Amino acid sequence: MNRLKKILRYLDGNMSEEELLEFKEQLRIDPDLLAELDIHRLTDEFSLPDEEDRFRKKLATAYDEFENKRIGLNSNNFTLRSTGFLIGAGSAMTAAVIIILLIIFKPFMLTQDEIFIKYYEPFTLDYSSRSVIDEEYNYPENAIQQYLDGNYKASLHEMTTYISKNKPNTVIANFYMGLAAMENAEYNLAIKSFQDVLREDFSFLHEHSQWYLSLTYLKLGKPDIAEENFVDLKLQRSIYSKKSKKILNKIH
User: Fold this and answer.
1) ω into residue 31 within 30 of 0, thus cis?
2) Of the ranges 79-83, 135-139, 185-189, 239-243, the best mean pLDDT one
3) Which member of 1, 3, 56, 176 has the lowest number of beta carbons within 10 Å of its beta carbon?
4) Does the pLDDT at position 81 exceed 90?
5) How far apart are the C-alpha atoms of 153 and 175, rounded to whole Å?
6) What is the C-alpha separation between 63 and 155, in angstroms, rounded?
7) Could you report the per-residue pLDDT of 9-44, keeping only the tens digit for each?
8) Burial profile 76-102: b = 16 or more Cβ within 10 angstroms, e = fewer
9) What does the alpha-carbon distance between residue 164 and residue 161 come to, in Å, rounded to a whole number?
10) Domain residues of the chain, as ranges?
11) What confidence score (pLDDT) does residue 100 get?
């Protein structure tokens, strides 16, 4: 396994106990590996898999430019002192560093809509089988299956019909209603549906609903409300904790 794969497995927490002990020993004796790990930690929140190579090349180029400017400044220190322009040169150097940093990080400064696109994925699990826990309720199984098959418009239509005829609505029906609404850009309906799920304090779909609700608020340009929910997900140590942490770092 090459160094990059080891670093990524370490950062993602995918190492076995044996691999972890071996990797930590390598870090202790290999300063270059430790430096690479620090760089990856620094850039982790900005990482886009298809742009990793481009980012690392820009980072290396920026370091080289900065070092060249520093060497050039040092070699001219005597002349600069004699002419009284040292402060001006220092300011120029500072400005150059700022420009370099902007060049590095600009491609990774995402808009709210870009964050939504990066992190949103349709839900893929079928929870309708959970109906066995309460046989008094019926579930819109066909509408759910249509959603899972990617027939989002038909799913929303059938789900809407089902929910209008069945009161009170089940947690599962409200959850998949929210998902189908998102896919059809019915974001206000999605918010209402997910909020109905969240009112069930012990719902097994609670964290899924809060995740998609957070993304919906982000899509609608309401980062403050989205942030509150992402913070909850992060603190709950849910399956969405890591993604929520990354998004929080991007929208601050």
Assistant:
1) no
2) 185-189
3) 1
4) no
5) 16
6) 53
7) 777 777 787 888 888 888 778 877 877 777 766 665
8) eeeebeeeeeeeebeeeeeeeeeebee
9) 5
10) 1-47, 49-108, 117-251
11) 55
Domain spanning 117-251, CATH class: mainly alpha
Terminal-to-terminal C-alpha distance of the chain: 36
Cα–Cα distance for residue pair 190/194, rounded to 1 Å: 6
Q: How many CA atoms lie within 13 A of 89 on its CB side?
A: 18
Buried b (16+ CB within 10 A) or exposed e, 53-62: eebeebbeeb
3-state secondary structure of 213: helix
Do the beta carbons of residue 115 and residue 91 sit within 8 Å?
no
Instruction: pLDDT band for 4, please (50, 70, 90 cuts).
Output: confident
Q: How far is CA 97 from CA 30, 67, 69, 74, in A?
A: 29, 10, 9, 16
For residue 74, the tally of other CB atoms under 10 A from its CB is: 10
Q: How far apart are CA 234 and CA 92, in angstroms?
A: 41
Place of tokens 């991007």: 250
